[in-house]
Amino acid sequence: MKVLTVNVGRPRAEEYTDAPSGTTGIDKQPTDSRVRVADPGPKGEGASGVAGDAVCDLRYHGGSDQAVYAFAREDLDFWERELGRPLTNGTFGENLTTHGLDITHAKVGERWRIGSGLVLEVTSGRFPCRTFQGWLGEKGWVRRFTRHAATGAYLRVITPGEVQAGDPITIVHRPDHEVTVGMAFRAITLERELLPRLLAASDTLNADNLRVARQYVAKYGPASGNYDGAAV
């Protein structure tokens, strides 16, 4: 398991973004440099955790729970075949394009050591938006990406450090619960009955996802999704 490329974006003006600035940082390009990664601060204030990377809409992007975005090259290869066109590393707006890592089945709260010092923790999947669809130029992309449910993963920074293309990835902690990136995404989008089960990962789940799960349980009760009794 390794990092194939580290990708950073610069702000660019686009008509399809909802960002108040009218700009987006979704166009990520691989860099050969070693890049510093650190906690950017709370959502709404902090941007990307990756030095030199642009986040242009702090309402929905950036912050501690979304400090770094990783996407598997294997999943890019899948979409290359589906879309019938090449997709270079960084095309999906990911900071880290990985190889050999099953991100969809990574558990929320799972920790990865990258290189010698950087440690990141999985918090959630990525939710597709109008900017993503406009960038790819694929009609119906949001629905199509959602149904496939292989979203890549957002990560928070546990131990800051540096990352470079070729760095090995080691899973150093895997929680004892069933909540994976794919399951959490499906619970928020297409399979709401799964929401109570997300509370098993409440200590590490993205704050926005956790709020949705708690609201669901408060409204419908823990039995609505075969909830296992973790504290709300």
Overall description:
By secondary structure, this protein is α+β, with helices and mostly antiparallel strands. It has helices spanning 73-83, 130-136, 141-148, 181-188, 207-220, and strands at 2-9, 12-13, 23-24, 28-31, 35-37, 68-72, 96-99, 111-114, 118-125, 153-159, 161-163, 169-173. The strands form three sheets. It has an eight-stranded mixed sheet with strand order 4-1-7-6-10-9-8-12. It has a two-stranded antiparallel ribbon with strand order 2-3. Strands 5-11 form a two-stranded antiparallel ribbon. Helix 1 links the parallel strand 6 (68-72) and strand 7 (96-99).
Output the structural class: alpha+beta
Query: What count of helical segments does DSSP give?
Result: 5
- Classify the beta-strand content into a percent band: 15-25%
**Cα-based radius of gyration, to the nearest Å:** 17 Å
Strand order of the biggest β-sheet: 4-1-7-6-10-9-8-12
Unreliable residue runs: 227-232
Mean pLDDT: 94
C-alpha end-to-end distance: 35 Å
Key terms:
single chain, 232 residues, alpha+beta, 8-stranded mixed β-sheet, two-stranded antiparallel ribbon, 5 helices, 12 strands, globular, disordered C terminus
